[in-house]
Each structure stands twice: as structure tokens, then as C-alpha cells.
Amino acid sequence: MENFSDNNLCFVCGTGNPQGLKLAFHYNEESGQVESEVRFPVHLQGWQGVAHGGLISTVLDEIMIKAAAEKKLKCVTGEINVKFKKPTLTNKTYLIRGKVVEIKKRLIFTEGFLLDSDGEIMAAAKGKLFTFA
Which residues contact 42 (CB under 8 A, 6 or more apart)? Predict the structure, then answer.
């Protein structure tokens, strides 16, 4: 594929996806990061009452892509590394934040964080993204 297009069906942010999370993202001037809130419904659990790690990785991937998009960069993920610090519970609201750390030509280094209401990091990610446009 040479061109990626958005048909509004992204699992994370697509408002046209009936099974999706439909997250809305905004840039926080104070923190210099892109942010969103996420709540994992019980049908997205791994262990009982705990959000599935793959879904946590998915929203962290998305927040890092959105951080690059804030800088007018169209990217795809080349690599993501997620560290899970504490269990993320279902039916509880969390904050996700993402930022661009460094840009080296077509390679974009990013970070993403999932935080509880006290600001404690539940999961942290580092990503390497590639620009395509």
C-alpha cells in the first residue's frame, strides 16, 4: 500500500465503528502531549475485571500515532514496547498521554502512558514510527 486513508472505522478512534472505543483526542498545551480518556468495558477483559493487555497496547499505540499527527506527521508503527506496571481495571476511566520524543528523518520516537486518576502510571510504551507522507 502506498497510501493509507481513514474511513472512520478505526477500532480506537473511529466514530463509525460500532464495536470501537470511539476515543476523542486533544492536545494539552500545558503538558505538551496528546491526551484522551479510555474506559475498557468488561467484554474487553483478560482476567476477570482486568483489561486485556493487548487492548492496553492498542490504545498506547494510537496515542503515540496521534502525538505524531499533532506534528503533522503521517505515520505507521514500526515497533512498540509496552511495560505493564499495575493491572488496569475494566469499567474504570484512565487517562492516556502521548508525545514525540525525537524525530530522525522518517523515524519518529514516541512515548505513551496510561495513568489512573491519581496520575500513577499503569502502563508505559515506547514506539518507533515511520512517516509515509
Answer: 49, 90, 91
Residue 86: pLDDT band (50, 70, 90) is very high
Measured at the CA of 1, the angle between CA 61 and CA 79, to 5 degrees, comes to 30
* pLDDT of residue 133 exceeding 80: no
C-alpha to C-alpha distance for 16 and 94, rounded to whole angstroms:
23
- Whole-angstrom Cα distance, residue 37 to residue 52? 17
Q: What is the pLDDT of residues 98-113, one digit of tens each?
A: 999 999 999 999 999 9
Contact 46, 58 (CB under 8 A): no
Q: What ranges do the domains of the chain cover?
A: 27-131
3-state secondary structure of 44: helix
Overall average pLDDT of the 67-95 stretch: 97
CATH class of 27-131: alpha beta
| Dihedral angle over CA of 74, 80, 84, 85, nearest 10 | -70
